[in-house]
Amino acid sequence: MSSLRRNRHTKIVATLGPASGNPEMMEKLFLAGVDMFRMNFSHGTHEAHEKNLKSARALEAQYGRPIAMLADLQGPKNRIGKFKNDRIEFEDGHVIRFDLDSALGDENRVCLPHPEVIAAMHVGSEILLDDGKVRAKIKEQGKDYLVAQIMAGSKLSNNKGFNIPGVIIPMPALTEKDLIDLDAALAMGADWVAQSFVQTAKDVQEAKDIIKGRAALMAKIEKPSALEFFGEILEHVDGIMLARGDLGVEIPPEDVPSVQKRIVRQTRDAGKPIIVATQMLESMIESPRPTRAEASDVATAVYDGADAVMLSAETAAGKYPVESVEIMNRICHSTESDEAYRGIIRSNHPQTEMDASDSITVAAAAVASDIGAVCIANYTTSGGTTLRTSRQRPEVPILSLSQNLETCRRLALSYGVYPVHMPEISTFAETVEWATKLAKEKGLAKKGERIVLTAGVPFGQSGSTNVLRIATIE
User: Fold this and answer.
1) Has residue 301 been placed in a domain?
2) CB atoms within 10 A of CB 466
3) Contact between 32 and 331 (Cβ < 8 Å)
4) Mean pLDDT of the region 370-375
């Protein structure tokens, strides 16, 4: 068996695309440090995504390491229509009309094919176009049109997206395309589904009702309304992606860092994994090295305690996909090696829950530290025990043993977790035997070193973690 050992606890997510959507490049990215591959359903065909998923499954079999596959749904994408000359130019103060007419636009008007958006707006509302490069204020609202004055920006081109800060738009959480894509993602066996542009808990509940446990559900936080209802949203999902691109357009940029810290902390406290995403090493789409600011951005997410950091266009369409993963790996390792890192992680220690399972996992992390154990091992069916352990952010790796391959794949995203799929066992003694054997084989422990184990009795019953044991590697 090959070694599972990475030189970091924080996981790396890489987006697949034209630059990386082939078996050879996926293997290079995996060996460079990727723990989860993201399939972006805003682009590509179902056939291409399924081919990539099968490539990941082949890598699993080859290297004996579960790989998480994330299907990222496009969501309700708000875009304006097209212009006669493909683009227009203007100055501050210019007045333009947005209406439902599908005819090609010009300097005076353009199609905004979303009647629900027009109805939700009011005089004084702002509309941000092209990722906030153009800012306009609504001066007049009609039944099927808006008149806006340009406050900043100088040009617009075909099909640019727009954001409306502070307005909950009554749009379906899952579009017709999303429903088709979701069905395809579940059929091909995606481990996680990311739902885009979530606004309220009702949105994610709709997706959860469709998924019915066939994949883990992740809410993408990219709307101010999602921040307002974050606590309720978090209760209904299995994980969070903080998608700072659209969010950074709709809230003041100076608020993004504090929001990131709050969302990471709340998600960790809930014992659920969180990915910090968007523009992390953006310059590496074209450059072999990131900027110092980008390196600091990745490090900040690690200091905040995120489970994972994500690469988007850097690996999907960039010139340096492998280098992007390698550098992100080095940044994560360097940050976790900083003396200040462990102090920060400890100071953000989550509140424990009032039950035996939580107490045992908290104790396991403390005992591992006290006795110098090199690994914490647990046997889990649903993944709950491992998630509780990961929430503690222990200094040593977490060896998660499960007879459920789907559980192993989902846990590949979580901080410090090394999931291993294994045969079904029936006694705690077998757990000890397998854990010590696999910890050694997978490169997590050596002969003579000690590990801490947790499990539940009655054995194999979900949510019954109540045993802690110290074992020495033979």
Assistant:
1) yes
2) 15
3) no
4) 96
* Residues with active-site annotation: 38, 79, 220, 278
Q: Which of 412, 413, 414, 428 is nearest to 379 (CA)?
A: 428
Indicate whether 93 pLDDT > 60.
yes
Half-sphere exposure of 150 (CA within 13 A, CB side): 21
Do β-strands 375-379 and 450-456 pair in parallel, antiparallel, or remain unpaired? parallel
Is the domain of 157 the same as that of 179? no
Main-chain dihedrals φ then ψ at residue 171, nearest 5 degrees: -115, 150
Q: Does the pTM exceed 0.85?
A: yes
Tens digits of per-residue pLDDT, 169-200?
A: 888 889 999 999 999 999 999 999 999 999 99
Is the separation of the CB atoms in 213 and 191 below 8 Å?
Answer: no
Look at residue 271 and tell me if it is in a domain: yes
Enumerate the H helices of 237-377 as residue ranges.
Answer: 244-250, 256-269, 292-304, 313-316, 321-337, 339-347, 356-371
- Domain final residue pick, 100, 134, 163: 163
**Structure-block tokens of residue 399:** 């060896």
Question: Does pLDDT of 70 surpass 70?
Answer: yes
Q: Give, in order, the Cα–Cα distances in Å from 353 to each of 265, 391, 464, 469.
A: 16, 12, 14, 21
Same domain, 363 and 467: yes
**Residue 418: domain span:** 356-472
pLDDT digits (tens, 9 = 90+) for 288-341: 999 999 999 999 999 999 999 999 999 999 999 999 999 999 999 999 999 999
C-alpha torsion 182→184→186→190, nearest 10: -100
Torsion of CA 239, 295, 327, 73, to 10 degrees: 30
Q: What is the pLDDT, as a whole number, of residue 1?
A: 47
Neighbours of 88 (CB within 10 A): 18
CA angle 41, 259, 353 (to 5 degrees): 95
Asked whether the beta carbons of 221 and 247 are under 8 A apart, the reply is: yes
Segment 437-449 mean pLDDT: 94
Query: Which of the listed residues 129, 163, 197 is the one where a domain comes to its end?
Result: 163
